[in-house]
Amino acid sequence: MPQRLAFATLLSLSSMLVAPAVLAQTAGGTAAPTPPPAQTSTPATSQPGGASDPQSAEPTANDQQEAPVEVSAPGMNGDAGDIVVVGRNIPNVVRATPQIVSVLSSADIARTGEGDIAGALTRVTGLSVVGGGFVYVRGLGDRYSSSLLNGSPLPSPEPLRRSVPLDIFPTTIVGSALVQKTYSVNYPGEFGGGVINLTTKAIPDKNFLSFGATIAADDATTSELGYTYAGGDADWIGYDDGTRKVPAFIRNAPDGSGIIPAEQVAQLSNASTTLLQRNNQLPANWSGEISGGSVYDIGGSRLGVIASLSASNTFRTRFANQQDSVSADGTLRNDFTTLITDNRIVANALVGVGLEFGENTIRWTNVYIHDTLKQGRGSAATLYNNASGLRFQQNTNWFERQLIETQLVGEFKLSDALKIDARGAYANSKRNAPYERQFDYLCSATTTTGLPITSDGEQQAGGYQCAGAYQVTQRFTPFASIIFSELNENLWTGQADASYKIDGDRPITLSTGYFYQGTDRTSSRLQFNYQTSNGGGTAPGYPYNLLRPDYLLSPDVLNNACPLTANTAPCTIQLQFNTAAGAYRYDASLDVHAGYVQAEGEAFDGLRAVVGVRYERGDERVTPFGVTTGLARLKNDYFLPASTLTWNFAADMQLRASAAKTISRPQFRELAPQQFRDPDSDRLFFGNPLLRDSKLYNLEARYEWFFKRDQRFTLAGFYKRIDNPIEQVGFYTGADDRLQTGFTYLPKATLYGGEVEVQKYFPLANVFGGDFFATRRALLIANYTYTKSRITANGECAPSVASSTQAVGGCPVGFAPASSLFRDGAPLTGQSDHLVNLQLGIEDSAALSQITLLFNYASKRVTNRGPSLLSGTGFQPDIVEYPGIRLDLVARQGFELIGGKFEIKAEARNLTRTRYRESQTFSNGNEVYINRYNLGRVFSLGVSTTF
């Protein structure tokens, strides 16, 4: 009996396995990045009466000869035909892997209509996206998930994260996305919830040129009130034109006296970055892209080039209620009404070159992503700590993120038995946030000199009304501040893998590989407070203190901030270098060396096993500047075994069981004693150098029934035990201070649950008849995940989140009993008990015509541990987010015109207009809204064409 190498080997070594019809990188090239066809399966088989069923009950002989799939990934094997495992024919790609995977093909991504890959991944069983594109797998936070691009790790441009936010990857450059939920030793050892591999588009089948454009309106933002500011002339494309250039005296401030004099303050950009303005007619959102590809036959070789360029400009306004409390009963301390307008501008490019000669392939892939957030924020309150009248805070921010990666991959088949591949990549990520400005005004009916102020009542604005005039005073210290922050991270990776097939009655594939990763990060945050030359906490005098921000910082005021005493006690406005409670800069590095061995083969008829072990050594360091403590170094090595058994007990059914040990290292930001404000949650974070590695023990079992091609029913159960899981904990340093978030670890936590998924097509020809329904089918894709977690918080010592110089509860200095930091039995942060996804649609299997209704539900989840009470005894309730229900509708229609293929796409998002809600609920029924605002419905219309 002829035998071929089990395709299981491929996926156990691969991070990019996708269905043959939709894989972006294939031996024969990929389809041009045009709108994918509606069908995602093999061609329909003939039915009586001329109707066709896209899913035949039994695969035909032709079905069994699918095109081979070439997968570019660490340790991959080039043979990707149908699998024969001692007489077992397994034509479905997902079914063929020994690991638990979910695949989003280009067609699947297109059906969701999402503009970025993070949104598309929310449709995958067990996945949810939290806080700007960070993926949670089965309730485990982004720290437990890793993201790869064509099999290589990615650096993060976010100070708070090691993982990259996936919402910066537009779907236009992604050919497929694979999520592997069970560990195999070819992957890095940092594996908890899963690994997400994005495969970029590569060699096309033929020459093409494609254009596309979309316009969208958000009914909570478009043509509504928002806050903006001028910035620079190139802000609309997301690049600074030099307006926000950081002068040398700012960069050198840590080495100086700590005071920036008025003549240097005058050199900073003023009105363009300080003047917050109302815009009553915010514009619509737009996006556009152009891509093209060419293929050249050179003798017996094939050279392909593909390129893509796209840009988008979107506005989002949040009219939020932001509250907090420091009491045990939820009595409000602060109650702010906040209007935040985000203008997000994204530009990205992809250039790929591929060369195929014989059975060998060389690929060079280059990705560039530039993501900018321009933010205007105004916040007002009459209730705040020690309130003395109407308070107004304004912020103008600019957050610029950039990711560049270049990757070279070579895959070589030296013989039928021996295959070797090697890959190397360099990636750089940056985050620049210059000119984070804040001004604090108090409304008063009298001047600081006691003179009365009268108002005519014509304030030309709704909301809070000031019965007097706004002025800066010494009541709020400082009256203004400015922050300059930068992050730069370099990531070098290299990997070499070899596999050797030993023929026999039961072939065995042996594989081995080496992996290196070197990461270096520098992060700085320079904060300056405005004051007069009279000292800290002072503000300009009357009448200058009544001026708007740009006039307040004009040369006349900078050089004469105390006009009433100009002749006797003159003063100027200065900047005081002030890095609050931590380091102004930290350098960090992580070096990882790893090797693995693995064997895969059939132990008995229908039972195949993959067994391997990985040795990994890591050296992680964080060196802070500006503080005398806080140096962190974690140097550890681990043996990480993994095994998976797959039992094909029926022609269309199988069982899987998997066990593995993995790790999770603290992220740089979690170790660094540096304060940082997250612009999305508007919360302060502070690192902890006392953290340590977490260890995970993973078990999983899964039943799969593939009753027809590309139709399936799956049922899985999973269990994880985590030793020393890292959690974020809220705390207050005093009654007047705002909520901060710190990091510590627990003795242990457990997580368990189950998931079920069904995908089914229903031919409509037999139901309705007629030519219109002859090739149309209904689609049902549904999945549900139940997850439960529990933390253990006993008397074991854990790092304190607030600085301490005293021993607590018999623990060393800097530590405290875990029971004093956590509530025993609470769930892990970020974990929803219930996740539901449903897709109902009608599509044409012969042409591009789809309409899909998408339903998503996530139950409540903890985003932040409730802080300890100021008394030191007891806790406030946890801060809980309520994602709720989301309903989307996507319609796509293709047609041909003047020699080109066109697609029109219409989308309606968040039809339920679900409100964002993050709150604390106290035992007496009081609810404190940490963040609450309406999310708008988004309607878009797009057109694209390919020639």
Brief descriptors of the model:
11 helices, disordered N terminus, mainly beta, five-stranded mixed sheet, 22-stranded antiparallel β-barrel
Structural class: mainly beta
From the N-terminal CA to the C-terminal CA, the straight-line distance is 46 Å
User: Total number of β-strand segments?
Assistant: 48
Describe the sheet with the most strands. 22 strands, antiparallel, barrel
Helix coverage percent of residues?
Answer: under 10%
Model regions low in confidence, pLDDT < 50 over at least 5 residues? 1-71, 77-92
Strand content: over 45%
Q: Any idea what the radius of gyration is?
A: 29 Å
Count the DSSP helices. Answer: 11
Tell me, briefly, the overall form: globular
The mean pLDDT is 83
